């Protein structure tokens, strides 16, 4: 864990300015080609949702601004332990927040995620993994959207990214989806979001 020195941080002025906002949260939506993820998941008999979520979180862990948290009034950078998925069974109306500990191996991660998901029946996890969240992930697999926003509390020091994607479409033999990223402008600017989206694309292309 590393503390950010506000006296020497390039983004200190941005942080001080946007920290005064009552609503410092903003987001962008872009398109991603996830054909490689789909093929990899199908080939390895794993969930596309969990597989893509693992890639997204791997990218999150590589962008410093996405890993900043407020710890007792100090800005700290750390790789956080949990990925939170919104999950729903096709035969149920209710959904649940499934918290999965990160591991480097995507196939092992998907197996762990599936086990936790299948064993959880309540909205919130009871697996006592804590609340050290890296990212909140969700998906709307029934529709396409061009923008998305997420509910926020009145905690303006909540720096956990929210990421949502929609139903992929077949376009020119490729699977394309809309990918929404919502962050806190006090610590994440447009340049950091751009680095993040490009990193996700890079990891998708490297998937074998």
What attributes does this structure have?
208 residues; alpha+beta; 3-stranded antiparallel beta sheet
Distance between the termini: 32 Å
Oligomer: single chain
Which blocks of ≥5 consecutive residues have pLDDT under 50?
none
Which shape, going by the Cα principal axes? globular
Radius of gyration: 17 Å
The main β sheet shows up as: 7 strands, mixed
Based on secondary structure, the structural category is: alpha+beta
**Arithmetic mean of pLDDT:** 95
- Indicate the percent of residues in helices: 25-40%
How many β-strand stretches?
A: 10
If helices are DSSP runs of H or I spanning 4 or more residues, what is the number of helices?
5
What would a concise description of this structure say?
The protein is an alpha+beta fold.
């Amino acid at each position: 864990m590393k503390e950010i020195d506000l006296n020497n941080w390039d983004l200190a002025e941005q942080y001080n300015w946007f920290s005064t906002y009552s609503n410092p949260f903003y987001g962008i939506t872009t398109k991603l080609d996830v054909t490689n993820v789909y093929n990899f998941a199908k080939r390895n008999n794993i969930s596309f949702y969990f597989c893509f979520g693992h890639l997204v979180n791997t990218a999150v862990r590589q962008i410093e601004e996405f890993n900043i948290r407020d710890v007792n009034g100090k800005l700290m950078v750390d790789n956080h332990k949990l990925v939170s998925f919104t999950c729903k069974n096709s035969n149920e109306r209710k959904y649940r927040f499934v918290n999965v500990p990160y591991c480097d191996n995507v196939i092992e991660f998907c197996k762990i995620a599936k086990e936790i998901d299948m064993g959880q029946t309540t909205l919130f996890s009871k697996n006592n993994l804590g609340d050290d969240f890296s990212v909140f992930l969700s998906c709307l697999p029934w529709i396409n959207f061009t923008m998305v926003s997420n509910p926020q509390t009145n905690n303006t020091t909540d720096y956990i990214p929210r990421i949502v994607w929609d139903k992929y479409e077949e376009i020119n033999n490729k699977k394309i989806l809309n990918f929404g990223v919502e962050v806190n402008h006090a610590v994440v600017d447009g340049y950091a979001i751009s680095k993040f989206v490009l990193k996700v694309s890079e990891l998708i292309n490297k998937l074998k």
